[in-house]
Amino acid sequence: MQLDLRPSGHTSVMASRAPADDSLDYFPTPPWAARAGGELIARLDPGDWTALEPAAGGGHMAHGLRPYFAQVIEADIHRHEGGAPQFVVDFLTEEAARSLPEVDWIVTNPPFVLGDAFVRAAYERARRGVAMLLRLVFLEGKARHGLLHVDCPLTVVAPFSERVPMVKGRWDPDASSATAYAWFIWRKGAEGPPAVFPIPPGTKARLTDRGDVERFNGKPGAPLLDGEAA
């Protein structure tokens, strides 16, 4: 039986399908950062693979990933403004394990407080691999050592040399951030210690599509308040 992997206190899927966007840990991914992850996966595991984005939000991540996969399926616990997920379901529930299709890769930017649970669920369900966009501090912690190096052996950590600004509830292409992010990638069947693949300066300019702003109405918002950027 698939266990409910959510931490204690996390609400059930039926109670969580229609909350306000600002009640969720929702920080849309800049599409260029998603493309950087797609490039890494294509480098590690070339092929005509399928992918699931289980925390799809408004579709920013899936949009950036599509050039690198045969199909990208979107799911989310909530139907966010601008998003059109094929599945509205809590990824960490038994219902999701039953209803979501099997895919080769599971790729997402999960809520940070649920990062460990997302990794475990994705590693169990993906056929070939998992990729998560996470804060670099996800590497730290005694308990997480077992997750990353024993239970779900990490294959690659790819830190961004440039910052990846994320703002709660919207994508602001002009935002700034002091937070360091990295792609964490698990390739099933890979052996050896995890490798470090730095994502070099200039990636943002190279992978930014002028159509992204029009696609997501990512116009700069009001001046950022302290703590608003992830």
List segments where confidence is low: pLDDT < 50 over at least 5 consecutive residues. Answer: 1-23, 219-230
Mean pLDDT: 85
Please compute the radius of gyration using only Cα atoms.
Answer: 16 Å
Strand content: 15-25%
Largest sheet: 8 strands, mixed
Number of strands: 8
**How would you spell out the order of helices and strands?**
HEHEEHEHEHEEEHH
Helix/strand-derived class?
alpha/beta
- Straight-line distance between termini: 35 Å
Q: How much helix, percentage-wise, in residues?
A: 25-40%
What would you call the shape?
Answer: globular
Number of helices: 7
Query: How would you write the strand order of the largest sheet?
Result: 3-2-1-4-5-7-6-8
Report on the structure:
With 230 residues, the chain is α/β, with parallel strands linked by helices. Helix content is 25%, strand content 16%. It is built from seven helices and eight strands. It has helices at 31-44, 60-65, 94-99, 115-125, 142-151, 203-207, 211-216, and strands spanning 50-53, 71-76, 87-88, 105-108, 129-135, 156-159, 181-187, 195-196. The chain has an eight-stranded mixed sheet, sandwiched between helices. β4 (105-108), α4 and β5 form a beta-alpha-beta unit. The longest helix has 14 residues, at 31-44. Mean pLDDT is 85; it is low at 1-23 and 219-230.
